[in-house]
Structure to design on (536 residues):
DNA sequence: CAAGCTGTTGCAAAATATGCAACGGCCATT
DNA sequence: AATGGCCGTTGCATATTTTGCAACAGCTTG
C-alpha cells in the first residue's frame, strides 16, 4: 500500500539472513543505491538496523527489545505464566504456551524442564506447525474452511516416520483433536520427544492459546506422559477461567497505555 | 531521512506499549486517520503488526521471528555457545553472553542454571547497564570520551544499596574493570545475586562481547563464586581465540547469504 | 430510530522519494 | 609509489507517491 515503507520493511527479512552491504541490499530490492542508503538510514535511526565495524548492515538491537516488550504485554501470557510454573513444579517437565497468528503458530512462553535433558525451542520461534500438539489445538479451532485453506498451503516435512505426512491426514487429526479437546505429539517432531497439550479458551469458547508438556523418552515413556493429561487439562481450564474473567473474549490488555512499566528486571 | 518510513516505524514502539486502535495511532503520529491506516496496512502485510479480534492493532508475529533469526545468525553467539554450555556443565550456574550496541547492552545467549533457583533474564532483554558485570566489561572498552558521554546520559537506579550510585562512581568502576580485565556484580542488581564476568576479544583486541556466571547467595557465597574467576577468564579467552580465528576483527558471518538454513528445530 | 463513532475509499494537490551523475575515500593492483 | 576500480555518499530536477479531505458504510449507543 505504501511503496516506500514496503521497500524499507523488505530489508528486514533480507538482513535476517545475515549481514549485507549497501550494494547487496540495493540489488535485492531492485532500487538505486542511493535509495537503499536512505531507507537503511531511516531504519538505522529507529535502531532496527545496526551498522557493524565493516560497514555492513545487520538487524539492530531495538528489534529484540520490541519483540521482548510485545511478548511481555500479551495478556494471555501474563495470566498463564504462574499456572505454567505451577505445572512445571508438579511434573518437572518443559511447559510451553503458544498462540496462532497469521498462519503461524509460535511459542510465547516456556518453563524449562527440571531434568538435565532439555529440548531446543525458544520463545518467538515458529512452531513445527504440522506436528506440534499446540499447533493442532490452535488450528483445530478454526472454521473448517480456514483449516482446509491452511492445511493445503503447508509443507509436510517428515521430521520422523511419525510426522503428519500430508494435508488429509492433518485435517483428520485436527478434527479428532477438536472433538476430544486435547492433543499429543508422539515423536512426530523428534523421535524421542513426546508432548501432551490442551487448549486455553476465552469467554466465548474460542481457543486463544494452547499449552503443552513435553518430555523425552529417556525420562518418561509416552504412556507415563499421558497420565499427566488430566493435570494438563485442569491447568488449561484454570487459565481459561482466569483469562475469561479479565476481558470479555478479546485480547484487551490491562490498560497500561502510554507508559511502559518495568515490572521485572534482569541480571548479569 | 524518509518521512513515510519514519512515521511507519514510529508506530512500532507505540504498539509495544500495548494494543491501540486506528484513531490512537493517528493521533500520536500527528497524521490523518487515512494515512495511519495505510501505514498500518503496510506493516500488516509484512507481519510486523497484527490485527486482533477487536480490530485493534498490536505487534505481530514476524517481529519475533525476525529477532530470533537475527540473534541466531550472530556469529559471536554461534562460536561462544558450546563454550558457554561447557562452562555451565562445569559449574552448574547460569551463564550469560551479551553485546554492546547503540548505547545498550543486551543478552544474546543464556544457559540456564542447573539449580532449582533460577534468575529472571531473557535473551534480547536490555541489561541493567549500570550494575551488570557484562555491561561494565563492554563499556570499559570504549574510548574515554565515549564512556564519559554514555555514563552521563544514564540513569542510576538504586536497585539495591550496592548499586552504582552515579556517573563518577560508574566511570571509576569502568576504569578498574578495564585494567583488571574482569568484572563483578555483587548484589548490585538483586540483593541476593552475584556475578563474575570476563570479556571476549576480537583479533584486534577490542571487546566484542562479554560473558558472566551468575548465582544466588543461597547456592554459593560471593567468595565461592569468585573462585570460579580463573575458569571464567579461561573460557572467555578460549572464545576469543575461536572468534579471532574466523573473521579478522569484524563480525563477518559464515557466508550463508541468500538462503535461510534451518539448522535446528523446535518442538511442542 | 437516529445519532455518533470508527474504519474505509476515491481523488486532486502537493509534498516526497527516486534515479542520475559526480565526488571522495579506500583498498588492491600494476 | 601511482593508478585503477570499488563502495558509500551528496545535490538536484523530475515525477511518482503520499497526503489530507470529504463522503460513505458498518456498528454500537442513546
Amino acid at each position: 500500500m505504501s511503496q516506500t515503507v514496503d521497500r524499507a520493511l523488505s530489508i528486514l527479512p533480507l538482513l535476517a539472513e545475515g549481514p549485507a552491504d549497501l550494494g547487496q541490499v540495493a540489488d535485492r530490492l531492485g532500487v538505486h543505491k542511493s535509495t537503499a542508503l536512505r531507507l537503511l538510514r531511516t531504519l538505522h535511526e529507529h535502531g532496527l538496523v545496526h551498522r557493524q565495524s565493516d560497514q555492513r548492515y545487520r538487524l539492530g538491537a531495538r528489534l529484540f527489545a520490541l519483540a521482548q516488550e510485545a511478548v511481555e504485554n500479551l495478556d494471555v501470557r501474563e495470566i498463564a505464566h504462574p499456572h505454567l510454573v505451577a505445572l512445571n513444579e508438579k511434573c518437572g517437565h518443559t511447559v510451553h504456551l503458544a498462540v496462532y497468528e497469521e498462519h503461524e503458530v509460535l511459542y510465547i512462553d516456556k518453563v524449562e524442564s527440571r531434568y538435565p535433558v532439555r529440548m531446543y525451542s525458544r520463545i518467538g520461534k515458529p512452531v513445527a506447525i504440522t506436528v506440534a500438539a499446540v499447533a493442532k489445538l490452535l488450528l483445530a479451532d478454526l472454521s473448517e474452511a480456514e483449516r482446509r485453506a491452511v492445511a493445503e498451503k503447508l509443507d509436510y516435512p517428515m521430521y520422523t516416520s511419525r510426522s503428519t505426512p500430508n494435508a488429509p491426514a492433518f485435517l483428520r487429526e485436527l478434527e479428532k483433536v477438536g472433538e476430544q479437546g486435547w492433543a499429543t505429539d508422539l515423536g512426530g517432531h523428534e523421535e524421542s520427544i513426546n508432548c501432551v497439550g490442551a487448549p486455553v479458551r476465552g469467554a466465548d469458547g474460542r481457543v486463544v492459546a494452547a499449552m503443552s508438556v513435553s518430555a523425552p523418552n529417556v525420562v518418561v515413556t509416552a504412556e507415563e506422559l499421558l497420565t499427566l493429561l488430566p493435570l494438563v487439562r485442569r491447568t488449561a481450564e484454570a487459565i481459561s477461567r482466569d483469562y475469561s474473567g479479565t476481558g470479555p473474549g478479546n485480547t484487551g490488555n490491562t490498560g497500561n497505555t502510554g507508559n511502559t512499566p518495568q515490572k521485572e528486571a534482569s541480571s548479569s
Q: What stands out?
A: Chain A touches chain B through 96 residues (CB under 8 Å). The first strand of chain A starts at residue 49 and ends at 51.
